[in-house]
Design goal:
Length: 166
């Protein structure tokens, strides 16, 4: 139906549980990886960047689309260094989400990065990122107030906070 730079849209004819058929439009998007960086004080390092679809600056965690054949963990580590200028000797899987399960096939794997080492940012030419650091409790409050509303970021913060309680 449509072939774009980052998404394709296809029509799928499906069979419903009652035997009838229905047409579905599906947005095809490459999978991605995201990472919630935890500094030595236990705070979360966020990025704030302009997101055109919502027309505003959005607070989120570093993330990106997998390059062809790239492993999710490698993508998360790459985005960590590119977007916030840190590497980690301790990255582990935290969760995964399908941000828009009703119409998009994208899956984002979320990782936790601790034991950070400062390097330098390596932003893409079209990326303009500000770094902000908040405690987990502050981040939870920002989710509750709607300040943080990006799905991968909400999932990452909630999963991290739940694991801290164990």
């Amino acid at each position: 139906m449509f072939r774009g730079k980052i998404v394709d849209i296809v029509h799928d004819t499906i069979t419903l549980p009652n035997g009838n058929t229905a047409l579905r439009e599906v947005v095809k998007h490459a999978d991605g990886a995201a990472v919630i960086p935890i500094d030595s004080d236990g705070n979360i390092i966020f990025i704030r960047q302009y997101r055109h679809p919502v027309g505003k600056m959005v607070l989120e965690i570093p993330a990106g689309t997998l390059e062809k054949g790239e492993d999710y963990l490698i993508c998360a580590a790459r985005e960590l260094e590119e977007e916030i200028g840190y590497t980690s000797s301790n990255i582990r899987f935290l969760s995964r989400i399908c941000p828009s399960v009703g119409f998009c096939d994208e899956i984002i794997y979320i990782y936790l990065a601790a034991d950070l080492t400062k390097t330098k940012q390596n932003l893409d030419a079209d990326e303009f990122i500000e770094l902000e650091t908040y405690s987990p409790d502050e981040a939870l409050q920002m989710i509750s107030s709607g300040e943080i509303f990006d799905a991968k970021t909400v999932t990452a913060v909630l999963a991290y906070c739940l694991q801290r309680q164990d």
